[in-house]
Amino acid sequence: MSRLTALPPSLPFRHPAAFIATWFGSGLIRPAPGTWGTLFTFPFALAIGWAGGAWALLACSFLTFAGGIWAAGYFCRAAEKDDAPEVVIDEVSAVLLVLAALPMTPVGWVSAFFLFRFFDILKPWPISAIERRFKGGFGVMIDDMIAALFAIFSFLLLDLIWMVLT
Prior knowledge:
The protein has 166 residues and is mainly alpha-helical. It is built from six helices and two strands. The protein has a two-stranded antiparallel ribbon with strand order 1-2.
């Protein structure tokens, strides 16, 4: 059963940092706020991809990354946490990057979701080292972008293996 997490007392939902960091409140859903944030990105990505293609998705990834540094940093200071679980703008930015790189097909997009979530949750080296090394808004954002690169390269490798075997 899903439930909602409360915002920090000093940060109302109407504040742009709360709205952006939680991706319209999707990061407040429990359990698995990162998964909810990733899922809530897909309708936006579908519209962006339809309107502008992969380049528009890439541009939106970089824009949400830049805005996410500010919003995540602001939210985490208000929550008095290094990486508040309610902050999901990092998942948004990262999955947009993965979607920009993978084919705009159902298989590509389902693969983007599962591969990104796999690496974001597992955090193999160097993702885990980067997560420990950087703090603040940049630290919250950068480890997910590295997880996105892992997802992209994994898809390319799996696609190459599939082509060789079939």
